[in-house]
């Protein structure tokens, strides 16, 4: 339908198998018919998204941002967000996706478990350099380029709140099935890792 309304549109898609982690099974395609199915969509569903072909780069590298959010209570809703986080960098200079470079995971995927195997992976104790850096160092770089960091943080907090609110009804079902009424609530928490880079997702559990 998009092609019919906009013939010059030539997207790239990123395929992310359900239940995967650490970059396992993620790949890029130019044509939806190129999706590789392990079994069928019923046995292992996949999320297919339009790939952002012009991402924000630092040092010519694609990167992501991982933030840490703690959901302390559902009723009343009480959310905390850490002031710092982690940024993971690709290890090959970014180029817009083509049929020749779709398979180059070190260029397109930021997963640490993948890039650690690259010969270009940089181990560094300096928070401002290397293939893993602090979120605050990224904010400093963005600020030096004129980005309004206060507005950025405000937008991030807004996304966190809206995402948690959207998940709250389902979370309440899980919570009530695990902790019946009258029993004490969680005494410890598993802090989820959030991904933010032109998109946003939230994941966390409480025990």
TrEMBL record:
Keyword tags: ATP-binding, Ligase, Nucleotide-binding
Entry GO MF terms: ATP binding; tubulin binding; tubulin-glutamic acid ligase activity
Pfam families, per database record: TTL
InterPro entries registered for this protein in UniProt: TTL/TTLL_fam (IPR004344)
Presence of keyword Nucleotide-binding: yes
GO cellular component labels: ciliary basal body
GO biological process, one term: microtubule cytoskeleton organization
This protein's record includes keyword Ligase: yes
PANTHER family: TUBULIN POLYGLUTAMYLASE, TUBULIN POLYGLUTAMYLASE TTLL11
Name under which the protein is recorded: Tubulin tyrosine ligase like 11
